[in-house]
Amino acid sequence: MLSWLIVVNFLVGQTPSPEQGYKALTTKAYVPGQFPRTVVDDAWKRWGHTIKPVNYWSEFRERYGLAEAPFPNDGLPMGLRASKMPLGGPGVCLDCMTCHGGSLMGKSVIGLGNTALDLQAIFEELSGQYVDRVKTPYTMCNTRGTNEAGATSVFLGGFRDNELNISLPWRNYGLVDSMCEDVPAWWLLKRKKWMYATGEADTRSVRSIMQFMMHPLNSAGKFHEEEKVFADIRAFIISIEAPPFPGKIDQLKAANGKTVYARNCAECHGDRGEPETYPGKVIPLEKIGTDPTRHAGVPKAFGDFYNNSWFSREIPSGGNAPLKARLTSGYQAPPLDGIWATAPYLHNGSVPTLWHLLRSSQRPKVFTRSFQTDSHAYDWEKIGWKTRIVEPAAIKSAKPIDQRKVYNTTLKGRGNGGHLFGDHLSETEVFEVIEYLKTF
């Protein structure tokens, strides 16, 4: 208890630094090595090559859906970080930007959700020193570009007591690994009061963004040690601005779209501008109608663990109560800053473009895309990613890594129904709203 009070008192009155947060985010590992560096450097041997490709790191990034690091990173892609293996020797671990670092129009973007990532392939192919494929304890990625972040917290939390000491045997708080979570952009955090798709956690929380550190080889003391560092990282996160739309905007059409948007969208999503214009509404499941798997996927048992643990004892500067997680009735309607950059849409990434989001009957049921993130892969008319329809029978015999490239909306957690709020608009109005959204 004394150490916790010391940490709290140390944090009070300190102003977190975005500059220090960026440095901490891009230079430091927060978990031990998860993959031997030799395996990472020689992954081509597991791909069926007989000699190392000349463009090896380009193929590596494309295979696993990682972007090039826009900062010095020991030759590794963004999302991987050099870290010593538990028994010594050079290794590599994941970091925040595995999921929160993407690529757009040929540029790597810190804070953009990584919608090309295949986390399952990374763990299966890079974890083992002497085996070609490792069986993961739960599914980490069902469809490329989504992940099972909630399941990861539930899995890792099962190894901890309320003080975050290692506690065995593992407790199953109701792990669900079929949520297919789409990663939100970091720049949205500054406008929200609650984070995550269901609005479960207070956005002022530093500790909530440290959950990935529950790696079994991190001691409880590690969380106390790094809390101020993560306060700086959070400060950097909320300093990030949404990228402006890089194409042409028809200002007259956008002006018309603003009127349509005000009548049909602003009540839930807010408008452009300062945080106070965003209402932060959670829309009940029966009204939003989108796939309920994510809402039910982080169970009450884990919420009780969280709210009785070190994570929930944080009192923010100027506050007088700890930041507890809450149970909500549905999904949070997010602010739409930089929405052009954040395709695919909905909390499970099941809708490829804004046009499909506003035209529910036209949403593809089983589809794939190139997973390239340049201008040729982008749908400049409908705003999102170009896709092509896939016949389900065509993927039954495909390798798992290729099956994960196909989004099948008939499977659990991947439904693309609901959010019917644009269906009554005319086609002209739909494209006017889309034009206005380009200005966000």
Descriptive keywords:
alpha+beta; 9% strand; three-stranded antiparallel β-sheet; 440 residues; single chain
**Number of DSSP strand runs:** 14
Q: Based on CA inertia axes, which overall geometry fits?
A: globular
Strand order of the largest sheet: 1-3-2
Structural class: alpha+beta
Runs in which pLDDT lies below 50 for 5 or more consecutive residues are 1-12
For the biggest sheet, the summary is: 3 strands, antiparallel
Span between termini: 46 Å
Please indicate the percent range of residues in DSSP E strands (runs of 2 or more).
Answer: 5-15%
Secondary structure: helix percent: 25-40%
DSSP helix count?
16
User: Which series of helices and strands comes N to C?
Assistant: HHEHHEEHEEHHEEHHHEHHHEHEEEEHEH
> What's the average pLDDT?
95
Rounded to an integer in angstroms, the radius of gyration calculated over CA atoms is 22 Å
